[in-house]
Design a protein that fits this description.
Elements: E1 5-6, H1 12-32, H2 37-64, H3 78-91, H4 95-114, E2 117-118, H5 124-147, H6 156-178, H7 202-232
Helix pairs in contact: 1-5, 2-3, 3-4, 3-5, 4-5, 4-6, 4-7, 6-7
């Protein structure tokens, strides 16, 4: 079992980490929303390289530290997958995967900010990286919305839910092969969360129910307010 560490919600450390991450997010999006398209493309390429090099650096860190394990160290939790999807969207945009990122991936990142659970060895470096990684999900989703002015389709909630189910199915098979627990499909998170009810496999039903509720709520919010947010963000 990999070492898991909880950052207690609403403690001074939680507040400082969360506020700094959200402030950097807001300032970054606000600045990028003023740039011309030619400069934005350079930023996008730089971000893709950052995601690739960051993940490569962590794999090397785990290997040389003697802690690398295929069951724990790949970026295959929901938030890791969402981050990869966000980077790919900068290279080649796909409407369905954008809807998955905005409606499901962003919701997962919000939940991670509220109840942080670090699933690797805990130190100051992994603490900072947790907020960098999950802040990138916020960034990638909101960048497409407020800077690129992307919108979602009337059936976006269904698209996001079906892609989410497909992702869970693939990861369930992968977990079975490697005896892993990616996306917490085989063992519930240790963080105290009233939305996670029961032991395996019953808590998976709450996962699905909360995930679908999250998708629908985000769907209606971004369908009603998405264009306004994209238009008025620079005024915030």
């Amino acid at each position: 079992m990999a070492e898991h560490t909880i950052v207690e919600s609403f403690t001074p450390l939680w507040w400082i980490s969360t506020v700094v991450a959200l402030l950097v997010l807001w300032l970054s999006l606000r600045y990028l929303s003023t740039l011309p398209w030619s400069k934005l493309r350079k930023v996008e390429i730089g971000l893709v390289w950052f995601v690739l090099l960051r993940e490569l650096a962590w794999q090397i860190y785990y290997i040389y530290g003697g802690s690398w394990d295929i069951r724990y160290c790949l970026p295959l939790q929901l938030c890791g997958i969402s981050q990869i999807v966000g980077a790919i969207l900068l290279v080649r945009f796909h409407q369905g995967w954008y809807e998955f990122l905005l409606l499901l991936g962003l919701g997962g990142a919000v939940q991670s900010f509220l109840t942080p659970e670090i699933t690797t060895i805990y130190n100051w470096l992994t603490h900072i990286d947790f907020y960098v990684a999950h802040g990138l999900i916020w960034f990638f989703a909101l960048y497409q919305l407020v800077v690129k002015k992307r919108t979602i389709r009337p059936n976006a909630w269904l698209t996001a839910f079906l892609i989410g189910l497909g992702t869970l199915g693939v990861m369930a098979i992968f977990n079975k092969i490697i005896d892993g627990n990616y996306i917490f499909l085989c063992q519930r998170p240790i963080v105290e969360n009233p939305l996670i009810m029961g032991d395996w496999p019953y808590y998976l039903l709450s996962f699905l129910g909360f995930g679908l509720t999250n998708i629908i709520l985000f769907h209606f919010f971004f369908r009603w307010q998405g264009k306004r947010i994209g238009r008025d963000f620079k005024a915030l």
